[in-house]
């Protein structure tokens, strides 16, 4: 039942490394230094993110998990809509822990559909395929490894049915609001009227709760951020002294921007391959945004990108929302 579309591995690895190098050098050469959070997830980064999800302060995953465990029926109704035939595409499926509740529910209800998980990690996809074929053997799976939009295009070309796109895990939060809007517009452009999106968004709440979720007492989030420097050292032949950088977290309740930085603890010059990058004491590297929204702002994002918000479910604390939009 399982088919995959994958790019030959060696070619893919080389160009990925070149792109990594370009992005890192470009990000560190500007007047304001920054790195891209999509590069957090190497093997060690995956492991540290697992640990973050187990931190008492990091509520995000548990909130959305609660929604998928306790409001599966409602989610299923979002997907089934008018009952017309559909296929289910998940952007950034990862290990699909949350969506698996929905998949199982739909299979139990004998709803016919193909599940198309899209992820940039081929490793994660093969593990997912294996697990799903043993845990939900009746599920048709067609996984797609690569960039969201490239693979979305492929997924859309595979099927004439109505499309339902899952974008869970507050992944949209890793884009600044303007980028999120552009992303949502591009997503809309790849869909037809009647297609749907189910999108997970972390909501504004007490600012301390948010800041502490990204600044846990055990320092795992700090290690998660610093790990990107270690990855740059290893993969791009650089010489960051990890002990000379410190994690700093900021949450601005007005804008809803939760941002993480690394701060240089001294004047230092870092070498990346043949390039030198000077850091002043107290200079920062902007690492990641985890943008928070109100329910109203989520509805506005839908409208501004050409979707109609149809329904949503929040967890029992009202901290997280899975919203359903129709194209
Ligand atoms: C994977 C985007 C959901 O922003 O909450 C967690 C990543 N970074 N702690 C988030 C993250 C630091 C996470 N998402």
Structural key phrases:
single chain, 327 residues, 4-stranded mixed beta sheet, 14 strands
How far is it from the N-terminal to the C-terminal residue, by CA? 30 Å
Extended strand count: 14
Write down the overall mean pLDDT. Answer: 95
Q: Per DSSP, what share of the residues sits in E-state strands of 2 or more residues?
A: 25-35%
Q: Roughly how many Å is the radius of gyration?
A: 20 Å
Strand adjacency order, main sheet: 1-5-4-3-6-7-14-13
Please write the string of helix (H) and strand (E) elements: EHEHHHEHEHEHEHEHHEEEEEHEE
The class by helix and strand makeup works out as alpha/beta
Instruction: Report the total helices.
Output: 11
* Helical content band: 40-55%
**Associated small molecules:** N,N,N-trimethyl-histidine
Shape, per Cα inertia axes: globular
Which runs of at least 5 residues are low in confidence (pLDDT < 50)? none
Largest sheet: 8 strands, mixed
InterPro entries: EgtD, EgtD_Methyltrsf_superfamily, MeTrfase_dom, MeTrfase_EgtD-like, SAM-dependent_MTases_sf
Protein name: Dimethylhistidine N-methyltransferase
Domain Histidine-specific methyltransferase SAM-dependent: 20-325
Keywords: Methyltransferase, Transferase
Describe this protein's structure:
- This protein has 327 residues and is α/β, with parallel strands linked by helices.
- Helices cover 41% and strands 25% of the residues.
- It contains eleven helices and 14 strands.
- The chain has helices at 9-29, 43-53, 60-70, 72-80, 99-108, 122-135, 148-158, 177-189, 207-213, 220-236, 295-304, and strands at 2-5, 33-34, 86-91, 114-119, 140-145, 162-167, 196-202, 245-252, 257-264, 268-272, 275-279, 284-289, 308-314, 320-326.
- The chain starts with a strand and ends with a strand.
- The model has no long low-confidence stretch (mean pLDDT 95).
- N,N,N-trimethyl-histidine binds next to helix 10.
